[in-house]
Structure formats: structure tokens, C-alpha cells
Amino acid sequence: MRPSRREFVKWVTASGISLSLSRLGTAQEASFPARASLPGPQHWNPAANGAGRIDGVAKVTGAKLYASDFRAVDLPGWPATTSHAILVRAPDATHVYTGMDLARLGGPSKPSVVVTAEDVAKIGARAPEFYAGDLFCPIGRTPLYMGQPVALLIFERFDAFDRARLALRNGTFIKFGEETGPVVASDYGAFRFTRVAGATPESPDVYSPVQAGWVSPGRIQNTALPLWTPFAKETPPSYAKAAIHGDQIRADLDAKNPAWLVLDRTFETQSVDPMFLEPESGLGWYNRKDDSLELVLGVQSPYEAAQSIAFLLGKARPPFKPSHVNTQFTYVGGGFGGRDHTPFVLYVALAAMFLPGQPVRLAHDRYQQFQGGIKRHAIKMRSRIGIDRETGRIQAFAADHVLDGGGLANFSSNVAVVAATAAIGIYDIPKVDVTTVALHSHGVTAGSMRGYGTLQTMTALELLIDEAATALPLDPIEFRRRNALKPNGRTMTGNPYSVSVRTTEILDKLEMHLIWRQRAEEKLRQQQNGMLVGTGVACVTKDYGAGADCSLGRVELGADGAISIYCDHVEMGNGIGTALANRVAIHLGGVADEVSVARVDTYDALALVTSGNSYTMDQKTQDAAEKNPHWVPAISSPTSASIGAHVGTHAAAEAARFIFRFGLWPAALELWHISPTDPRAGDWALAHWKDRQLSIPGLPPLPLQEIAATAHARHLVTGAIAHGFSRWAWSRARFQVGAESYRAEIDALAVRKGGGKFERLDRVSVIFPPTDNNRFGTVYTSMCGTLVRIEIERATGALRIAKAYSVFECGQALVPEVVLGQAQGGFAMGVGYALLETLPPYEGGPGNGQWNLGQYLVARGSDLPLRDLEIEMLPPLTPDEPPKGMAEVVMIPVVPAILNAVFDATGRRFQSLPVTQTMLKEAIA
Structure pTM? Predict the structure, then answer.
């Protein structure tokens, strides 16, 4: 597989290695890509009838291929045989690692190559900063964490690999010496978020993170947890100011004010696995003839993966430093955050480099995925809330979060921040103080996962809210309505939301639903059958986006009306391909005939460059950098943080809008015989598509094919490439198009006319979102509320979810069926998290390599109200309301709603997860 000259254009270079990145289908023979690419509309139109997915048939028939499906023989130009690798991991992190019992892998199970920490050091490979820590535990050291790799074994014959894989499973292959206890390391991040509102909602805040910046306590200390007092040694003045305000809030909560109801509670959540269907897998080949490292990967963050591999080998000694790294990306068999910035790709690259000339496959089985895959953070929380008894209004809130980050930092610091800034959920609270710290431990690494910390903190919050409503007493929904943040209200970091806030509407829907209205009579009716019945409610908000989100999109229109779309975001079950097709169809009138995702190789015409860290740069640095018309704060971002609809489709939509405005519209005017000076020539906003025909009032409709043919014949715009950057607001730029100044929410643009080549249009001016936006917590948000009715069998404690209802808003739903599927899947994940799933954090946990689905319980159909789950999606407030991210928010309220229903049924409030059948049986005994 020899990449084309164009693919090897230095779109990005890292550590002296040129990188090319592409979708796998582009380099395949004619018979192969039909099984690996999104096939287009195939005689149906999801944009027109609102049904189906572009990849639906391929997915359900097994024709859609993932990284684990590929072998070298499948790839043109590759050698025919595939070697196999095993990543050996330490099942212990309290004793010194002394080596491996390689004698047990003699004869037919002997590896051809053994790669250890010593070998990696010899060749000069380096761990990228994000993955700081030993790639392999060296002999003579205690592993940083359970599941840390100690060696990579490579087998040229599958039979040897298979024998060794089974021999290694019992965990006694790795040898240990003296007991040292776990390695002690610094925490991954500690922050304090404090806000004191002004005297009125309109008044400036007395103190807030937006005003003063985010703060952390001093780092010099001899304690496991940070010293949060403002008077600790080495306390920065900026932190001391926040801490003084925060301590005053806590003093108010401790003051035993009879006018206040004060609750002080702890809550603890467990570690769980993302449990995506396809364990991590990759294929690598170091082609010595071309000095090229060829890779096939399935990740959520293609651009980052390629850069990390280039850094890994960028200072390696010959022949372990390739001249080129050509990474091709496949579909991802589920992600839920667990494939975002995964270190797995580094080991795929090393396997290929240590067996040059022969393709090597590294693929986890489920045991290995449990042992080494990224987990959800276990969090211990203490929350205090103060409520005015007379008005039922919340006056103050304080919380302390301690996250178990496991063995590597990964995204632990970020998760701690998001969890903290979400700690007050949908509520308007004038005084808030939240501390959060993510700790290193010897458990399996925790990182990005669906909910990203908010699942944990909002579960604790919604239980506290329900308990407060009971104590006041107030109806639980009325109490929430009374304290809900208004659309122009400020979040706990001190900024308002920039999108619609529909909490009251959702609460009204919950209140009027029969599950809520009939809760009392159902409780009485079922009690006669030996059942305990309870109804629970919860309402939450969840941000989407990460504050440095990028969108790359390329749209082409053929002379026959065929539409092709290319996007850098990843298909991982989120329906991004169909979302792209539908959003582009709004502007171009037809569903794409080709949609190619995970593409970061088709935008060379933009000639983008970047520098600095978009999260930490100051305004002066950004102002200086943007003078280069090729510069953007970041080029590409992972498919995570629920950004698929909002970010992933944005650039393609803007490219399509440009094609319509400067290609299809002038072509249509010619076909309608409307001159450029006619007042109607400016009425493009009145035009609309129906059945691939363009109409405006008073004129005959025009078929897309006829308009496209005219655009090509007249050498009008028939293709566009766009890039956008969002730091809680989109970049905006102005481009000169002939005599017209065109403005759009993008920062780079290239255009094709007729059948010609793409040419870049330099921006005339640009406005990037200010760097102070990095002080915001949540700006983009969506809301969801859930009702759950449960039945618990008195004799056994068995719990059944009898009925459930979730209502949410997501702006414009690009693919309603996918949105519904996300809500249903989120409900199932919530049930598993609340009632079933748990992983011991250390010894006895997944890091020992013995865990599989025999021990780990996930929600099955029998655990779900398959016929009694109602999902309602609120329509957009306006026809042009942008799409919102909703994949995470639909999961979050399910968990506290179930636990609040358990209290309603049993009178017992549980303070940890999961709430198992055994726990319920003991509670009602």
C-alpha cells in the first residue's frame, strides 16, 4: 500500500517525521471499500423522510468493518501474513517487578521478539507528555499501577501466539520480589471553584472564577490531600482570596441558623468499564523499503494519535525512526470516551517497529481490555446544602470531591474540573464553594468516559435535592422549579449559558406525566401484591464541547448532482455520517452519495498551521498568531464530549452553505432567467428544498441535478473546504468573494469552481473567541429529566423497573432515530451504573487480568423496561436552532431517578453505588 504523493504532503510534521492520515477505504482495491465505507443514500433519503442511517444496512449485515476486522492480507501492497503481539501487564503494584518466566513459553509458544523497558530505552523511544510514566515497568521497580505493561511479546505464527495467550492468563508468568506497597505520586490536579453572587441577579458577582481565574492550592505539602485552608504554606494569593470566600460559605453552613435547613451528606461512586463492544485493536507494518510505518487504528482522536506516535519515535535511533508515519483510521466499535487519547496506539507502533518488514496485529481480548482499558473515575464526595425554610430557596452549597485517577494522569484533571463545575446541576445558588482533587493510585488508569464526572456529582446532588424536598417538605418537582437557573442566570463559574435553557419546560413535562401523577395510587395498588413500589425523579444539565473544539469539512458537488462529504470526526456508533448527510442536505437539497469520516487528509488546500496551547495561551499570544492567515488555535480535535452534531457537522455545513450561496444560487437564478440586478437575486434566504428541488415563491422548482450541471458549466462554486474553531463560541472570519464580503463562523476556506482544483481564500479578517473564555465552566448545555417507577419484591429484594420516561432537548435533531437510540442506550447504561456494574479498585480488581463478563454485570434486556420506556424529545425552539450535544445528558438523570425511587419504595437512602439486590434485601428485611 503505497500512499499517493498527495497523501504524503506534509500536512503535519512532528519530530521530523512526516505524517499522513486517512480513512482506510481510500487506499483499498475496488472490491474492498464497499464493505468499509458509508454507502450513501441507496435509493432512500434519510433527510427527506427522517428515517434510517447511511451506514445502517452495512452495520446490521456485518459489512461495516472495524479495526479488529483487518489483517495484512486485506490491505493492498501489504505482505500476506500477519504476526501477532501480546501486551503483558503487571497484575500487582505493591511488589518489585523482577522479570518474566519466559521458560514457560518454550517450544510452540515461544515469542519471536520480546520488547521490554530496556529495549525501548535503547532505541530512544519517548512517552508523549500526556502519557507521562514508564511505557513498560523496568525490572527492579514497583509498577506504577495494576495493569502497567511490562513487555510486548511478538509471535510470527498464530499458533504460538494463541498458546502463549492462554498460558499467560493465570497471572503467574510475571515474577515479583519484595513488598514495597503502592508507588506514591503527586496528585493529577486540584482546583477550587468559589462564587459569591451580588445582591441582585443583575448585580456583578462579588467573586467568581470568571472574574478572578481558576485557582489551585499550594503544591508543597506532606499530606495525601491538598490543604485547602487559605493560610497553608506556599498558598498563592489568588487561591487565598477564593479560599477566604469559600471558608465563609462553609462557616455559614455550619452556623446552625434555625431559618435554614442544612444537610451534610457523603456519597461514593464506583469504578466501571466503558464496555464498548470492540476491544482495542490495531495493525502495524514497518515497510523498510519505503522507511514508512503503516498503521491501521480505530480511535476517537485520530490527529492526536498520529502526533503521539510521531513523538514516540521522533528521537529514536535508526532504524527505529521511520521517515513517514501513514496512519489509516477505521470505524470504531464503540468508544464512550475510552478510545480518546488511548495509549494503546503507542504499543501498536512499537510492535511494528520491533518486527520490521512484517505486519503485526495487537488486539485486546476482553480480559486484556478489562486489565488495561481506561475506566470511569470512582469519586468520594461530601456535599452540604443550605435552604431557606420559608422560601424553599437554596442559599449556599459546598462540596469536596476526591477522584481516584488510577495509574496515569490521562484526563483526570479535566474530569475533576468538569465534575466540580457541574456540581450544582440545574440550580441557581448564590454562594458556592467546591474543592476537587484527582489522585494517583495503583488502580487501572481512569480517564474520559460518558458523563465525564458529571454523572457522579449530579447523582449525589439530585439525591440531596430529593432529601431536602422531603425534609422541607415540598413537592420534589416544585422544589426543583423554585430553584432552577433562569436562562440569563449565571453558572457556578460566573458566566451565563449561551444557548437555550428549557429546564422549566422539562419540569412541567415531568410533573404532568402519568408516572408522576399516579405514583400514590400505584404504590397502594402494588403493595397488595407483596411489592414495594417507588417513583423517582431527577433533572440535570450537561455541557457539551471541551472549549477547544475543531471542525474540518469538505463538500463537493458533481455535475450530476452527486454530493460527497469528508469530515475529521469519527463514526463510533454516534451516527455522524448520517448527521453530516442530513445537515449538508439542508443547504444542498440531497443526501450525500459518499460520506467519509475520520478523514484528516483531504484539507491540504487550507494549508493550516497552529502553535501554542489553545487552552492556556493568553490574548496577546493569540492576537499575534492570528496575523498569519494560515494560523488557527488548533487544527483537529477528538470525537468526544458529545460534539458530534454540534462540532463534527459544523464545517461541512458551512462549506455546503458557501456552495449554495456562490454556486447553486447563481446557477438557479440563471435557470430562472433572473438577472443579478433583479431584487429577487438577493432572496436566497427565501429558497427552500423539497424532493431535491429548489423553490422560491412564484417560480417553478428546479431539480438539483440541473442546477449542479449549470454550476459546473458556468464555472461557479462546486466545492468548499472549511475549518472552524470553538472556544465556547465559534471563530468568525470575513472572505472577499468577487465584489462581496462574505462572513461565516469559520476561520479558513478553500473553494473549487466547476471541475477545477481547490484554491485557498485568505481571510480578510478573523475573530477568534477570546482566551478569557477558558475561564468559563459550562456554556453549551442541554437538559434532561427522568421519571422512574420501580417495583421491589419484598421476599427477595429483586428490583424491576416497571415504567420510565425521559424528556430532553437537543436543539435541532439531525437524525431523530439516532438521538432516540442514544437516549435508549443512555438509559441502559444508567441502569447498569445504578444497580449492577462495579469494579474493585485495586487488588481483586480488573488490573489482575482475571476479569471478564462472568464477573462484570451489565444491563441486559431483562433489566430494562423495554416496552415501557417512553422517550420524548422537545422540538427546537426555532427552525434554525443549532444542534446540541445530548449523548451524555440522557444517561445522567437515570441514576438518581432510580435511587430516589428506591427511597420512595423503601424509606432508605443509599449513599454508594451500585445498589444491589443483596443491599435491597437487607434494607427491607
Answer: 0.94
